[in-house]
Write a structure and sequence with these properties.
6-stranded mixed sheet; 12 strands; alpha+beta; 318 residues
Length: 318
């Protein structure tokens, strides 16, 4: 009887939302165990918060990998208090790491790279965005943030009308002051500091959500992919065994980030590769990856071994 009880307890512990073990680190990045964080009674953790939004992979990249980028969203009129749909700017990082801002110019901005994470990023984005839109409707301006988990309400998926998003990657953060007349004093200092910290980054144009970046001493390609983790690992293992996982000569596939329910494979690149040289090779790799994803043949021992190795080369960001 005791043995059956222990087995039942182990099964219950494994059967958590999203398949997260209660004793595993919480995916929110708090450092706590899941059962003491978002797995506690009343806690919420959405493993794939941007699922269903256009450009899901780019949103993950903007939140976790890209220093400075913007995209335009259109918010349904019923949520904005206006007579027509309202445009807002989605930014990777806003001034002061603000979650959302109603600007003096009348613009509304919402930021992806923020300090808080109460378990459902999409709900949090919607909450601060609605508050900023309310300020705008009143003709007021200011920063909007969260000090606690938002009450139940619409998620970003419910607000936007976009069928696609067009991401613009910026060299720095000068877009912060595009609607500001006086850029001197403290604002100028903050802008200078932010620009110095922004690593050069470019989005490839031939494939989705692939970003070249340079840290000065190294260059990388980081590519957020939408496929299910198990399928993607198997496909990448097939390409690795065949030697087809080298993007350009001298490049090295080094592992993957796991963020918001998606994997982002990473390659180290030879210095002075640049983004332009990756365009055609990345498109060719995408074609090869699609073929590997469609391959249903039995895995060879070499592919199984490569897959196990890839699984051990993942770093969870969120």
């Amino acid at each position: 009887m005791a043995k059956k009880s222990r087995l039942k307890n182990r099964q219950t512990e494994a059967e958590t939302p999203g398949g997260i073990s209660r004793n595993a680190p919480c995916p929110c990045g708090s450092g706590k165990r899941y059962k003491a964080c978002h797995g506690a009674a009343g806690g919420v953790f959405v493993a794939r918060p941007f699922e269903g939004l256009p450009g899901e992979c780019d949103l993950v990249a903007m939140r976790e990998l890209v220093p400075s980028a913007t995209a335009s969203l259109t918010i349904q009129a019923q949520y904005s208090g206006a007579s027509a749909d309202v445009p807002v700017t989605l930014g990777s990082l806003l001034p002061l790491a603000a979650p959302a801002m109603a600007r003096d110019s009348g613009q509304v901005w919402v930021g992806l790279q923020v300090q808080h994470n109460y378990g459902d990023i999409s709900r949090e984005l919607a909450a601060v965005l609605l508050d900023a839109l309310e300020l705008q409707a009143k003709g007021e301006s200011g920063i909007v943030g969260l000090t606690e988990a938002p009450a139940p309400g619409p998620r970003l998926q419910d607000l936007v009308t976009n069928s696609s998003i067009d991401v613009t990657v910026h060299e720095g953060f000068d877009w912060w002051v595009g609607d500001v007349e006086d850029t001197s004093g403290e604002l100028a200092h903050a802008l200078e500091h932010a620009n110095e910290a922004a690593a050069p980054t470019a989005r490839l144009t031939t494939v989705e959500a692939a970003y070249w970046t340079s840290t000065g001493s190294k260059e990388h390609l980081r590519w957020v992919m939408p496929e299910a983790e198990d399928d993607l690992l198997t496909a990448l293992a097939r390409l690795h065994v065949s030697g087809a996982d080298v993007i350009v000569p001298g490049a090295r596939f080094v592992g993957m980030f796991r963020a918001h329910g998606l994997l982002a494979p990473v390659w180290d690149l030879p210095l002075d590769t640049g983004a332009e040289a990756l365009e055609e090779p990345a498109a060719a790799f995408r074609t090869a990856l699609d073929a590997a994803l469609a391959d249903t043949s039995e895995l060879t021992p070499e592919v199984r071994s490569a897959r196990a190795g890839l699984a051990n080369r993942q770093v969870t960001i969120r």
